[in-house]
Design the sequence.
């Protein structure tokens, strides 16, 4: 059932991408011949259209693409003339590292913030909520520029261009993590508040549990449940944020690959990146499902029956 | 006028930057040495220069394939051309020592430099020249720029080892200029024979650096060619370059590039934004190289092929109505100088006429009244026979920097006073070209880089209205004037210098006088360098930087 759903999602994504990229103006043959506005000769255009099957009817091209995808062949990049699979394989690692680190940091920030501020005095709650709302609303491009201005140009702590060193990762990860932490903390706060009003909290108190212990041992699981199921969405959101962050910090990765491919109308690469992101979504849905079961014993029991 | 002016930025220069740039330009005009900076000592060997490029990362490093400016920027470090150009516009020897056209102009014999080897160890000879031209003309190469440049070349014959004869189908006074461009540079035939995929990764030339590794979306490493022996005639020294290597990084964001330069993470950046250049003035440790690209000036073209600009009075009215000088000063922070020519100031034969572009709102209104655009709608936009005076203005966000986009908004505002409705549409490159190919524009601004005044023939000869197979056409003004055609065709086949110059002057007078275009400024091309970089300069051909004479001080 899950497999069928995943296949359907992948098919839908491939189909939408294929037709969407043809709805925007631009000739893929020109992408092959040095980009838009190329003054390629008729011979060159003809040859390229023949070689890449662009002279075929759209439906034939579409079916040919599906046939290729079924065999696991993502095709060859128009602009870079290398297999799409190699291209994406080379860029996936950097982007995943960035996204996973950002997710991790966002989780830590969000947990810390919501555990600290929820159910406390009004001032702390208001401050916490204010920070979350502000953080969640920060656009990546703005945050990146501010972080560079403060920590690169001002303090000279971290480089503005990420050249593969750990120090270079700090600002990109922070740019992605801070707004996400705002989102996650907001949903955590709500379920944490909910949990703090449950009867088991009173009984734990009665057993002599102090506030910190109560939060860490009893309510943290409740707080994290919705955030766990959000993490699948969050990873996809981070991948789209990677387009901006990779461009600003000059990091190699899928985001920049996608941006360049769309600009050049490099259909196989666009399709490849979109499929890959869809796959990540599908996998993350499974992973968050499992993680929710681990965090919530109720789900495990239901599953056992 | 020279192509490149080098100005070290000091606070006191803030006041009169354009004037200073001009003064330095004049001071440098006769200077062929690479390093005009007064503070330099003896060159130091070694070190890696880090260059941060804001231009798009090439999809292929071989500039024969396609052929755009980002490719030229990189190729200039490892490929060399038969000839070059000096700052006075003279063609000078490079891989060719001398050249001689036949009397009928249909054959050119080039005597090649002796003892030059490609970095794969093979010899540079007449046969290699023949292979390169064949490569450019082969449809399978997918060449665009180089293919056009070799348009009149039928073939190249190797007369002997060091004599290459270009056989032409028609006389071509632009041949030397075409051959000076990086898009027609010489590559090792053995390198070309490896096939496109491999040659795109690491083309093999005779240049001062060799392509090391290319990490996509990150950087290209260029390492020193220890056996280098073929600098152009205007280079600052002989033998191998001083630098060990160049790390050529792709950094698309302008603010990040500048921050990296300020923090010392990189040594050179290209495409600095005007506000950044102005901000760098306060910074004693940065050097600004202002190297306008050759060919056409940046200009707004008026589409004379359809209404309303098929009426010269309406074209003149638009040009008289629009006010750009204050906008250029403010938005470009004094880093761009107003042009009144169709050609770049890098071109010796550029002809300017300021009087033609004097703003005059009253004259504009009178001309529009005369042309029958007498009604006005509720917004104050002029109408004629129920049609609004709307000018569609597709703007490429890839080619127009933010300052230029803001300038176009000022064009919009000032044109409105005369009753024009300028409809700006911001588009990505592919969509922008699609709009042009469909003739869905009344005004448009498109840069065009080429060495020499022959660019006028490409932009304003009526042949260039006919689209190329891809849909591309260069004559965006759709200027169709037999007199202009005749002048440009004759100029392109006239080698005698005074006669050629006179023909180009007449052609430019006619083009400017017909109100087909509104010149704005040279095609901006700036570099900011850390002051420890000495000896860098830009090539007077297409204004790409060269680091052959460069070294790192301190």
Sequence:
């Amino acid at each position: 059932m899950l497999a069928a759903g995943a296949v359907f999602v992948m098919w839908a994504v491939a189909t939408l991408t294929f037709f969407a990229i043809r709805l925007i103006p631009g000739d893929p043959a020109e992408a092959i011949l040095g980009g838009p506005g190329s003054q390629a000769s008729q011979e060159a255009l003809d040859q390229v259209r023949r070689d890449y099957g662009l002279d075929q009817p759209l439906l034939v091209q579409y079916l040919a693409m599906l046939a290729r995808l079924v065999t696991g062949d993502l095709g060859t990049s128009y602009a870079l003339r290398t297999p799409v699979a190699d291209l994406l394989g080379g860029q996936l690692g950097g982007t995943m590292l960035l996204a996973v680190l950002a997710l991790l940091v966002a989780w830590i920030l969000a947990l810390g913030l919501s555990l600290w501020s929820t159910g406390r005095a009004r001032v702390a709650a208001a401050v916490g909520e204010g920070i979350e709302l502000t953080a969640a609303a920060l656009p990546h491009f703005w945050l990146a520029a501010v972080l560079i201005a403060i920590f690169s140009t001002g303090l000279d702590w971290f480089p503005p261009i990420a050249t593969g060193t750990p120090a270079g990762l700090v600002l990109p990860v922070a740019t992605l993590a801070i707004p996400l932490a705002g989102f996650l903390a907001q949903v955590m706060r709500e379920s944490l508040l909910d949990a703090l009003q449950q009867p088991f909290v009173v009984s734990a108190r009665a057993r002599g549990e102090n506030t910190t212990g109560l939060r860490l041992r009893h309510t943290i699981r409740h707080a994290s449940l919705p955030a766990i199921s959000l993490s699948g969405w969050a990873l996809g959101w981070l991948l789209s944020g990677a387009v901006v962050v990779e461009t600003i910090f000059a990091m190699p990765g899928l985001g920049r690959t996608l941006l360049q491919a769309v600009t050049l109308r490099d259909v196989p690469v666009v399709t490849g990146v979109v499929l890959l992101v869809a796959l990540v979504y599908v996998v993350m849905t499974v992973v968050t499902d499992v993680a929710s079961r681990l965090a919530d014993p109720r789900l495990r029991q239901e599953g056992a029956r | 006028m020279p192509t490149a002016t080098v100005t070290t930025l000091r606070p006191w220069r803030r006041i009169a930057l354009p004037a200073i740039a001009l003064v330095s330009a004049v001071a440098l005009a006769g200077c062929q040495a690479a390093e005009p900076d007064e503070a330099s000592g003896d060159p130091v060997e070694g070190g890696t220069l880090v260059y941060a490029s804001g231009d798009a990362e090439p999809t292929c490093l071989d500039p024969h394939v396609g052929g755009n400016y980002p490719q030229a920027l990189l190729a200039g470090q490892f490929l060399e051309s038969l000839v070059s150009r000096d700052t006075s516009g003279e063609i000078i020897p490079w891989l060719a020592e001398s050249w001689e056209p036949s009397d009928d102009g249909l054959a050119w014999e080039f005597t090649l430099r002796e003892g030059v080897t490609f970095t794969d160890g093979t010899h540079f000879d007449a046969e290699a020249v023949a292979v390169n031209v064949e490569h450019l003309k082969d449809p399978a190469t997918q060449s665009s720029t180089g293919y056009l440049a070799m348009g009149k070349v039928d073939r190249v014959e190797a007369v002997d080892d060091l004599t290459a004869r270009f056989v032409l189908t028609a006389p071509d006074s632009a041949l030397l200029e075409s051959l000076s461009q990086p898009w027609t540079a010489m590559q090792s035939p053995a390198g070309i024979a490896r096939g496109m995929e491999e040659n795109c990764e690491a083309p093999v030339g005779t240049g001062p650096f060799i392509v090391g590794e290319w990490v996509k979306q990150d950087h290209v490493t260029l390492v020193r060619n220890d056996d280098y022996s073929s600098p152009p005639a205007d280079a600052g020294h002989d033998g191998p370059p001083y630098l060990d290597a160049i790390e050529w990084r792709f950094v698309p964001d302008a603010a990040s590039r500048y921050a990296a330069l300020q923090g010392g993470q990189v040594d050179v950046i290209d495409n600095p934004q005007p506000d950044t250049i102005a901000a760098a003035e306060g910074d004693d440790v940065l050097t600004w190289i202002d190297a306008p690209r050759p060919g056409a000036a940046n200009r707004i073209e008026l589409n004379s092929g359809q209404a309303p600009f098929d009426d010269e009075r309406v074209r003149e009215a638009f040009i008289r109505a629009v006010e750009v000088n204050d906008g250029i000063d403010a938005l470009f922070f004094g880093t761009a100088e107003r042009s009144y020519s169709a050609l770049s100031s890098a071109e010796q034969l550029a002809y300017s006429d300021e009087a033609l572009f004097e703003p005059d709102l009253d004259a504009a209104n009178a001309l529009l009244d005369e042309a029958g655009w007498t009604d006005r709608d509720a917004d104050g936009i002029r109408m004629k026979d129920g049609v609004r005076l709307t000018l569609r203005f597709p703007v490429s966000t890839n080619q127009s920097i933010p300052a230029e986009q803001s300038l176009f908004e000022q064009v919009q505002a000032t044109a409105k006073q005369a009753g024009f409705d300028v409809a700006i549409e911001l588009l990505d490159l592919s969509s922008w070209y699609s709009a042009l190919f469909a003739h869905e524009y009344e005004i448009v601004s498109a840069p065009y880089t080429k060495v020499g005044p022959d660019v006028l023939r490409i932009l304003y000869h009526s042949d260039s209205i006919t689209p190329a197979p891809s849909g591309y056409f260069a004559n965006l003004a759709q200027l169709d004037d037999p007199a202009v055609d005749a002048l440009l065709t004759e100029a392109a086949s006239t080698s005698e210098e005074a006669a050629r110059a006179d023909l180009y002057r007449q052609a430019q007078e006619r083009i400017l006088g017909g109100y087909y275009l509104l010149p704005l400024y040279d095609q901006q091309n700036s570099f900011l360098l850390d002051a420890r970089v000495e000896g860098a300069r830009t090539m007077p051909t297409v204004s790409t930087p060269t680091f052959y004479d460069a070294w790192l001080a301190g």
